[in-house]
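We emphasize that the prediction below concerns an isolated chain of 947 residues; any contacts that depend on oligomerization or on bound cofactors are therefore not represented. The input was used exactly as deposited, without trimming of termini.
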Amino acid sequence: MRLTYFGGPAWDAGPLPARGRGQESLLFRLAVDAGAAVSVRALADDLWPVDAPDDPRAAVQSLVSRLRRALGSATIEAVSGGYRLTLGREEIDLTRFQDLVAAARREDDPERAAALARNALDLWTADPWVPDDFDWARRDLLEDRAHAQRIAGPHGAPTVGAVDDTRIPAALTPLIGRADELALAEAQLTDERLLTLIGPGGAGKTTLALELARRHAPAVFVELAPADAGGVWDAVATALGRGVRLSESTVGQAQGSRERALAALAGRPLLLVLDNAEHVVSDAAQVATDALRVAPALRLLATSREPLGVPGEAFVTVGSLPEGDAVALLAARIRAARGHAPDAGETEAVARIARRLDGLPLALELAGAKARVLSIAEIEDGLADRFALLDRGPRTAEPRHQTLRAVIDWSWSLLDDAQRDALLALAVFPDGISSADLAEVTAAFGLPETAIDDLVERSLVQRSRGRYRLLETVREYGLDALHRSGRLEDARGRQAAVMAQLALAQDRALRTPAARPAIAWFDANEENLAAATRFSVGHGELEVRLARAQLWIWQLRERFDLLTSVLNATATPADALASEADVVVAAMAMLMRTMLDPTTTHLSTQSVARIAAAAQRYDSELAAVLPVVLRGALRARQDRRGDEPWSTYLRLDESDLTDGPAWSRAFAAVMNAATAQNNGDIEGLGDASGRALDAFRHLGDAWGTALASQMRSEWLMLQGRLEESLRIADESTQALEGLTSVSDLLQQQALSVSILLRLGREGEARQRVDQMLARARADGSERAVAQAAATAAALELVRGDGAAALRELERAGSLEQQQALAGFPAQVAAWQESKRALALLLTGDAAGAADALRRAAPVAVRTGDQPIMSDVAVAFARWFLAADRLPDAAAALAEADRLRGRADLSDPIALPVRDAVSSAGPDAAASDPAELTALVERLDGRQAFRM
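Result of the prediction step, given as a token string:
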């Protein structure tokens, strides 16, 4: 054994190299499924069952990295979506124990089974070590030990008057998954007398009940599916007559089915299983009540799609299989159907099929059986009409389990009209609905508020974490029913209308202290809103209201592509502004079009005046500030020279908002701060950022506070107040957490890294960079990876390691690759290319560095972003200094200072140039700046590099 847990954790018979609760728990979780892939989601759920980190994927990645260093990198393998411990199951005592017990339970020969069980028990040298919060693992082990002890011990035959448990049918196939449900059911049956396995049709409740009956002999199994109202006692008496041996006197005294059944149950320690009770639930409840009263030693197990409603009833929910078990079940059925398991090229498709079928065991069984005649790809494609695909099951199955449609037809037949209408309403909400929105949704569809909760009781709707959801299979059934009845268009219209109503209310909260729960609402309803938006196209006012409701969340989430396309499709002409939504959408559309094409005719004095006049009718923060922004854009377009970016000249007249909403005034101030920073106006940056930060803090707007903090931090940095600047930057990062995109958050974190490097705190900077890289990998977007890699490269440049910086920039991608990405900021691309030039310079490749500068300069100039242009100018200065061309270096440094608005005295990249210029005397220090285009031309002069 390489890894042991009985008697305490050990590695190769020595101390466990893993340190700390996190690493120990991660290793244990991977060991439990040794050799198999464990998804990141499953790891996070088990490692942090209560207080999960903000970014579970990054947290798991960090733990894996540390554990690999402790155990060796080959011990843990990264696989698609998760990780795998490469040890064999025979190398870990817990898994060896479990495998021996499983083999003993499968073995038909009693002697061989007993030998396997004794071998397993030999491994149990002391109690197993299990991490905190892993009670499920301890329960599984104790359950396996009980099985091993039972199999290893003597076997007795049934006695007269006992129950013949051979009447419980043997399992036709091994039970896959359901370990948690089994453990909970075992515990419930120990403590309670009535347990109901409750769940949707096709979830495997009967299979689980049979497994429990086998484990809890003596048991009698009563199949209620054929029974009708009034026939439950008959079914119970018949089943008891087959399985219980009674004396003649007992039989003679009993008259009807009820009396005979109660007489059979009296005084016997028995598990009575009532299977499929949902259609006779009232009668089953009465049977349970009477039987439990008469037979004190009786325990009763029921399966149903709704509770029996008997006092003292305990429950175990049997829902969808976890993804790993669902995939295992589907793969097993595919292997049985065609003779071989899915190959490596099919595993991802098998996982997708399992997800699309909701992990529902019956659906997985039906899909797996199709592998006899269809390829995996054909099965996946066929799920576009899953009810047609899964139209035939085992001939011996109950009719209601022979097709996927029949399973849901059975549940549908048990609903009243209001419950059916509720199911159909929920079918047009792909994300489900939250409990907080229940009243609005039921009102929109004319439903009683209790209708959806009734569906929860009947296992057709899942209620989890405050949301009501349909399984995807049930949802498609509902959509099909709506389509066939001609009601689909009406249902989608009602869904779109109520989503617009709900989203508009949440939009108002986005600019308040309640922004985080509002953003969480938008995230939870992303597919609902997308479906509503698609439906609303061409529906006039509804289309505009939905666009208006989502404008600000799209802005926060940087969904500029969606923002632009929807605005272009929905914008109301400036002379037809009948609502606040019309005003805001028209103004935003005009602004977006101007950003894309400054010469657009949509922006005119007349159109802006009409929007401003209409905006005065509404008490709206956005309606108040957008006309001010449009006036600023109009002036900027008139003032700009040549091809310069119009945003360079965007200055808002804050006096237009003297009597306007406080948020609108704060927004105008932060916009002016951004323009001042962009133009090297340090005095303006200090004034506007201070006012904006104070205002947003007072309002409690986290996004506005974060944006203003970023501006304020940069101003403090240029003032040399680095500690204060770092504090503000970190506060900004914390405020942005969960509010904006990961790439935007990483950009803010890069500012903190830059300040730490200026303070000489390289170790702290390294820690932050490592966190950024982990987060970018977890996010996976090109922009996030590029931002984190470029920040890591900046750290390596300060350390003087050009080769390491180039390796990081390789991950960020080339300038050409970045420019090909839709929405990739040109400012970031130019900044990264200037870092590439510095890295090449450090490695001695002066020609390559010059080429990088030639690429960076025109991109930076086109952005009009003076801080970015200043960074590029500093890179030029370093290149000229290395070439012993001090006058050119001084000119480049002077240009960097001019663009920035003042000398950035703490910049470690510029410091060598600043020192050289200072040492050369006052004439060098007084060099005139040279624009970037002129600096490009100077690159071709003669030079003799010193490194």
